[in-house]
Structure formats: structure tokens, C-alpha cells
Amino acid sequence: MAVYKGKLLDGRLVAVKILNASKGNGEEFINEVASISRTSHVNVVAFLGFCLEGGKRALIYELMPNGSLEKFIYGENPLKNGGHLGLEKLYQIAIGIARGLEYLHHGCKTPILHFDIKPHNILLDEEFCPKISDFGLAKLCTTKESIVSMAGARGTIGYIAPEVFSRNFGGVSHKSDVYSYGMMVLEMVGGRRNVNVAVDHSSEIYFPHWIYKRLEQDEDLGLHGDMTTEEGEITRKMILVGLWCIQTDPSQRPSMSKVVEMLEGDIEGLEIPPKPYLSSPSRPLLDSSITSTDFLDYVSAIKP
Questions:
Q1: Which distant-in-sequence residues (6+ apart) come within 8 Å of 261 by Cβ?
Q2: How is this protein positioned relative to the membrane (predicted)?
Q3: Span 58-80, pLDDT tens digits
Q4: CATH code of the domain containing 244
Q5: For residue range 166-216, what is the model confidence (pLDDT) as tens digits?
């Protein structure tokens, strides 16, 4: 897949995504057109059209000048590298993404499960308003469906919910997107990937467990140096919401409507969730899209 900057005849700048003709016999193209053409929301990227000629497939979107969220949250000092982006802006971005997902799950006439929520698929406009993009793995649901059927796993390792890989963890539903969202929010507030192979201590490799231990023991979160009281509350709120979202049992995760309420509500109303049961990954498999059976290599064990 390649993305190019283009210009329409009326002068509008657009992003043109060229899909690999051999990938999935056009399934990704069909998924994206079928799902995103049904959407209209400030936090979902606007779909302008498509081209289909022989084996060539192209999707046309509004241009997002600031690119993906990914480049603003990783690195030694992402908050400074991101220029305008501080904790308050990241917090507003997290709320915007939550609203976009809430719309996909409950606001569309035909609900949409995205299945690939991650920083790379969140685009930022000129005002850093976040927009959910890349619906190649999305699935349309009937309004009566709460649990959906799927032939195999789909998503990106590091963000994929356990039940998407194995139904032993529960049914696949909109709560699977909630899990991916929670993993992403933890990376946003932590300023690092949830699996950090660069640290010296194995206890610090898996960020969700490391930060949960600090919350549990009421230790300093130690993420961004000196923070104002407001920044400290934002940090704690995003961590608590992220940890609720990545609960191993899908039924314990909040809906995206509840996530918006939690993020916009009072910090005193947020309790520390149960510790997620998934253990640290046995080996680093970062940002690797899967469609079948790699998840058990990513997760070393399930702790009772």
C-alpha cells in the first residue's frame, strides 16, 4: 500500500491510497469502501471517492496535514518533539478518538467494528483534530448484533484483543475495539510503546503492568517530570481509562460511550480497575499486522 498527495479538479488537496492489487483478492478495498462510505463524523476521516480499473484500486480521502498520531507519541521526548502537543492536547485527542469510535459503534445506521485502532491509523488535521482512518479490516454489523462471527483473527499485534484471537476469552464485539483503544491511550500517556525492549529491567518492559503497579502502590507515576496539578489529573485519568479498556474479560471493559463519560468526568469518580491478566510478551512483535495465528507468540501466558 502507498499513499500519495493529490489535487482534485476543484483544487482540493487529497490523500490517495493505492492498494496492493494482490492483497486479499480485493477484500480490503471492498471492506473500506463498504464501511467508511456509510460514515460522517468529525472524528472519522472523510471518504471522497474511489477508483477501480482492472487490478488497480485507489481510495481518496481528505488530506490530513499533520499525518498520523504515531509520530507524536514515540521517541525519547515525544511531547517536545510534537511541538504543539502536550498532555492537554493528547487528552483532547484521546477524547476525540473515543467519540469517533462511539459513533462507529452506536451512531451509524449500520454499526462498524474497526479492528485496527492504533496510533498509525489516527490522522490529525491542521488543528490536530483526530480522525479514525484505515477501514480495511472493518466489519459491518446488523443493529441487533452484539457478538459477531469471524473466520480468523484480524488486527495488529500489540493492540489486538485476546478474544479476537481465541473465543475462549469471550465473544468478539465492539469491546474488541475498546481494548485496542485502551492500549493506544496507554501509549499516548506513556510516550512509548507498551512493549519497550530498550529498558534494562524486565519488570518495566510491559508498560501496562509497570504503570498498574505504581498506581496500586500509590507511587509517583514518573512519566513526564514536573507536572501541574491539572496535568497530573489528566495523566492519572488517561491511565485509569486505558487500564479499564484492556481488561481481559470483554464484559469488564466499558463501552466507548462510557469511556467518553469517564474521560470528561471527575477524576474522583474513577476507581482502579482489576489488574489485566495478560502477561508480558515473550518476544517483541511490534506493529505487525496479522490475520491468523501469531497471538500466542505475543502473549506468553494467561495468569489466573
A1: none
A2: Single-pass type I membrane protein
A3: 999 999 999 999 989 876 554 44
A4: 1.10.510.10
A5: 888 888 999 999 999 999 999 998 887 776 545 554 445 678 888 888 887
Annotated active-site residue 116? The verdict is yes
DSSP character string of 158-184: TT--HHHH-GGG--BSHHHHHHHHHHH
Asked whether 48 and 6 are in contact (CB, 8 A), the reply is no
Calpha distance 114→31 (Å, rounded): 10
Residues 56 and 89 in one domain: no
Q: Answer yes or no: do 276 and 149 share one domain.
A: yes
Residue 304 in any domain: the answer is: no
Q: Which residues contact 80 (CB under 8 A, 6 or more apart)?
A: none
* CATH number for the domain that contains residue 41: 3.30.200.20
215's CB contacts (< 8 A; 6+ apart) are 221, 236, 239, 240, 243, 272
Q: Of 12, 33, 62, at which residue does a domain stop?
A: 62
Q: Is residue 12 part of a domain?
A: yes
- Kindly name the residue from 116, 134, 218, 220 that is annotated as catalytic: 116
Give the separation between CA 264 and CA 98, rounded to whole angstroms: 11
Question: What range does the domain containing 14 cover?
Answer: 2-62
- Nine-digit cell string for 4: 500519495
Give the chain's domain count.
Answer: 2
Residue type, 100: G
- Full-model pTM: 0.85
